[in-house]
Each structure stands twice: as structure tokens, then as C-alpha cells.
Amino acid sequence: AHRYCQSFGALVAPASQWTHEHVYYRFLLNVDPQRRANLLARFHESGIMADDAPVYRNIAFYCGLPESDYPQTICANQQLLSLPIYPSLTDEEVNHIITTTLEIVN
Predict the structure, then answer these.
(1) Which of 48, 79, 86, 91 is the most buried (most CB within 10 A)?
(2) What confidence score (pLDDT) does residue 18 get?
(3) Would you say 29 and 80 are in contact if contact means Cβ atoms under 8 Å apart?
């Protein structure tokens, strides 16, 4: 996560700001909602399994909450993509994700 934060700067979603206490399930990037589908496709073409699935949806479904209860969350999610982040990523894989992300997003 620290390497992602250092590499991506302003692209990093505020909730993804690196701290020593945080355990990452997803690493979120802010993206232009108009470009999100294209960016996601380009990540997949590059072998990076970026994701746009909203984290909140499973929790809301489990709790029985209608989507009308959280319109700001839905809006915010349209500006986010998550990158792979897990302990078994090798340095080479992290380098590939960083390099490819910078090429795709810029």
C-alpha cells in the first residue's frame, strides 16, 4: 500500500491514504467516471484484475437496505476502481501494477 500511495499521488482515494494501522482489502483510485469502463477494460487487457464492484453492496444486501438509502455512496463508487492488493503479490507484480496503472491512467 505504501508503494501504491507513493506512486499514484493524487489518484489515491482519500480512504486509501496509507497508515501503519490499516489493513487493506482494496486499494482505491479516483478515476474519471466517464473513463472508468474503458480504464477497467485496459487493466484487464494488461493482466491486472482491477475491480469496480462496490464494497457496500454486499453489506447493504445482507442488512436489507434499499439503494435509495445511500445515494452519495453510489455516486462516489462511480469514481472508484480498486487495484489488487494482497500479501502474496511479488515485488515484480507490484511493479507491473504500478507501471501499468501510470501508463493507463495518464
Answers:
(1) 48
(2) 54
(3) yes
Please name the residue that has the C-alpha cell 494482497: 86
Q: In angstroms, what CA-CA distances link 38 with 41, 68, 89, 90?
A: 5, 27, 25, 26
Quick: pLDDT tens for 74-99.
888 889 999 999 888 999 999 999 99
Residue 79 · residue 36 · CB < 8 Å: yes
Rg value, the chain, Cα: 14
DSSP 27-74: EEEE--TTTHHHHHHHHHHTT---B---HHHHHHHHHT--GGG-HHHH
pLDDT tier at 49, thresholds 50, 70, 90: very high
